[in-house]
Amino acid sequence: MPGKILLVEDEAQIRKFLRISLEAHGYTVLEARLAGDGLAISAKEKPDLVILDLGLPDMDGRQFIVRLREWSEKPIIVLSVRSDEAEKVEALDAGANDYVTKPFGISELMARIRALLRMHSEENGFEASVFETGGLRVDLASRTVTVGGKLVQLSRKEYDLLKILVNGAGQVLTHQQIIRAIWGPSREDETHHLRVLVGHLRQKLGDLPASPRYILTEQGVGYRLLTPQ
User: Fold this and answer.
1) Which end of the chain has less Cβ packing within 10 Å, N or C?
2) Helix (H) or strand (E) holding 126
3) Would you state the pLDDT for residue 126?
4) In what order do the strands lie in the sheet with 150-151?
């Protein structure tokens, strides 16, 4: 069962303690002090599990979880001194799989790691952090979009729309599915806003509705992101 584990923790002593303990149990250990470095390592190395501290210098741990969950379903165990129930619920709602409060027993942590790795051993979550088609390149880990090698600046909602299309690439996504994901269920009938947003995204990607390279309109239904032939 031992595999590759990423530690995202800013305290060097805790990283050292965990690395020694994990390596003694046969795991390969990757380390990051900052959340940004942790996301980059996750995209490159594809760890089997992430152990995350919530109190990081460059980004709140919950933000890290949300960012990682945009393209990976690998298990996340949160380690934190924050024992408040609301903090735990927020981390779990953001996408964490388990929560261990500091100080903790290493035997308990190892048991939780083994349980999560068993649970996820036969699951294949979406792990491709980069999507490419016809000159369009979307890096979900770094949130960068380029067309023909040139960086494209998108608004938050434009990027959210593109991310939704990338995660469902090749599939028809209905107006309601997309609207729920971007604006919430209370605005499912407001397709006009979606059409405007799609128009802005197409313009920035240089994608013509009459001869689309990327976003195909399914008349009266929704949109589909074209995949490489």
Assistant:
1) C
2) none
3) 47
4) 130-133, 136-139, 144-147, 150-151
